[in-house]
Each structure stands twice: as C-alpha cells, then as structure tokens.
Amino acid sequence: MPRRVDHEERRRQLAEALWRLVRRGGVEAVSLSLVAAEAQVSKGLVQHYFKSRDQMLVFAIEYANERMRERMERRLAEVAEPASPRHVLRVMLTELLPEDEDRRTESMVGIAFFVTALNDAGLAAYFRAGYDELIQATIAQLRAAQEAGEVRADLDPHHEADILLSLVYGLNSHILLGQQKPATALAVLDYHLDRLAAETDARAVLTTNERS
Q1: Do 100 and 30 share a structural domain?
Q2: What Å distances lie between residue 18 and 44, 64, 72, 123, CA to CA?
Q3: pTM check: above 0.70
Q4: Engineered SS bond to 185: which of 7, 60, 171, 194, CB 3.0-4.6 Å?
C-alpha cells in the first residue's frame, strides 16, 4: 500500500527548515528553493503546500505560536489542582523567554520577522494583531488574579499588562545576547510579579521565600 502522507506534519517540517534558514541568515535568506534544499525535498513539493513565500512565512510564525500554546497547555495540565490565575499568567510570560534551544530558535526567528515587518505592511499588520491578542490575554489573567485576591485591586490591568510584556521582551533580548542567564531573567520576572501581589498573597510569597 502507498505510504499515507501527513500533510500537516509535512508543513511543520518545512516551517522548521525555514526557521533554520532564518536563524542562520535572517528572513532575506528564505526562498521556496532554499527551503526545499534545507528540507531535502523538491521545490515542487514546497509549492504544493505554499503558493508563495509570504504564505510560507506566515505559516512559520503561526506554527511557532502553536508550539508555544501547546507547551503552555502541557505545563498547566501538570498542575495537580486547577491553576490559579497568577500561575497561568506566569506560565504565559515564561513561555516568551528563551530558556531552552527550541524557544531560543523561536525567539530569534520572531526577532528576524519583526525586523522585516518594519518595512513590510502585511507582516506588520500580522504582528500587531498577534500582540493585541497577547495583551488582551495578559489583561484577562491580571483581572482574574485581582478577582482571586492574588493581585492588588488598585492596579490598572491595562498598564500592568504593557509593563509585563515590555519587561519580558526586554529580558528575552538580554538572554539572547548573553547579558543575562535564563535563571536570572526568571528571578527578575518573579520579583516583579511578587510586587503586584495583594497583601494577603504577598505574605504567602514571603513565607515561601523564607522557607527556600
């Protein structure tokens, strides 16, 4: 019997080949022919899945976002009890930090795409939409944490979401440049999250820190 082809898996393999090219030479290094060579397949096969370079680039970004969501879901599923809003928020934010090789690759590819988007209206619109989705998710978790008494009620969740994402993206760059180690960046993030804690939750954080 002929071998059954998993088309989604094939698309992912091509996206990963594209990531390797971008990591080595930036988005300018990407073409249908070069992705085919990197993936060791024919150009015709690449064109079967992607009609244009832009379509392939967008899929590569979407696949990176999908992998991040899957990692988040796995981490939250490992929690014995339903995760608190604060814990969900921390998982969301730490997934944006390049703590391992996979996330380092995704971060470097994301930065390369961002630079290209500065002069590409289509990619820029895609990035803005993605950031809007992320900021709204962060605001929602902050509000849920306020309702649960984990974050101070007097804080503006919109401003705090902007601050948190600005902090995380800055830490991301510092890790990639070797200015900070992932463990140090995580400590900085946790330090800031602790400062957002409501009084009762802050006492719990202090007690936990004193035990460690």
Answers
A1: no
A2: 16, 11, 24, 16
A3: yes
A4: 171
